[in-house]
Amino acid sequence: MLSRGESTRSRILLAAAEGFGAHGYHRTSVADISREAGVTGGALYFHFDSKEQLAAAVLELEDDIWPALAMAVRVRERSGLRGLVEFSYEAACRMAHDPVARAGFRLRVEGEPDGEGTHGAELRWLSLVTEFLALAQRQREIRADLLPVDIAHVFVEALTGMRLLSLAVEWADLDPRLCRLWDALLRMVLAEGSTFSLRPPREVPAACPPGRPEDDRAHPARPLGSTTARKHEP
Which of 225, 172, 232, 199 is nearest to 12 (CA)? Predict the structure, then answer.
């Protein structure tokens, strides 16, 4: 169970993520965040020195989502290709329903304050996707003449474009876009004689929807709000 200070910090972070994800960084004020979190401005500034620090904390949390999600999929799914399909659909669910995932993407697209933009996030995604594809190639699920990192570039770049298009319609069409991408990609990469078929998961068990701020199951690596050095409350 979170302490009172941790719970307050968590509510502030969730309110910031919801604001950044829905309205963008510049159109979300500190007053908006404190009002949504149900705290005073003084309480907000006790935990975060500035809106820039809030955005950095949200981005740090978003960074944690994808490696933890990929690891959870690898634990339960031995097939590299099937694992990547499941990872992609669970990631799409996160993007549609998790305010931290939505906020992280929008902050980077619109130019995060004092940050690295989309490039660093793209490299992290490339690494995760390449691992799935390298396993799939060792399992002879995809063609031996292809480089997993090249396929990963195609997938991540296409997914980034899909996320941009879906942002305009509140992520409602990300699943069908993803299905079309997989249908095209599998035609190009499947090994000869492969019996692999695209079966998008009907339900997404672990990743969606996220917990509320007092429920740290949303981000199992650490409780929401423990990203930056915490001041000691009296």
Answer: 225
97-127 burial, b at 16+ Cβ within 10 Å, e below that, comes to ebbbbbbbbbbbbeebbebeebeebbeebbe
Expressed in percent and rounded to 5, the helix, strand and coil fractions of the chain are: 65, 0, 35
Six token digits for residue 144? 């031996």
How many CB atoms sit inside 10 A of residue 130's CB? 20
Q: What is the DSSP string of 3-43?
A: -HHHHHHHHHHHHHHHHHHHH-STT--HHHHHHHHT--HHH
Give the pLDDT of residue 50.
Answer: 93
3-state secondary structure of 189: helix
Q: pLDDT digit string (tens) for 120-133?
A: 778 889 999 999 99
Q: Which helix (H) or strand (E) holds 130?
A: helix 117-138
CA distance 212 to 227: 17
Give the contacts of 114 (CB within 8 A, at least 6 positions apart). Answer: 52, 56
Cα dist. 57→24, 137, 155, 175, 225 in Å? 15, 37, 28, 28, 8
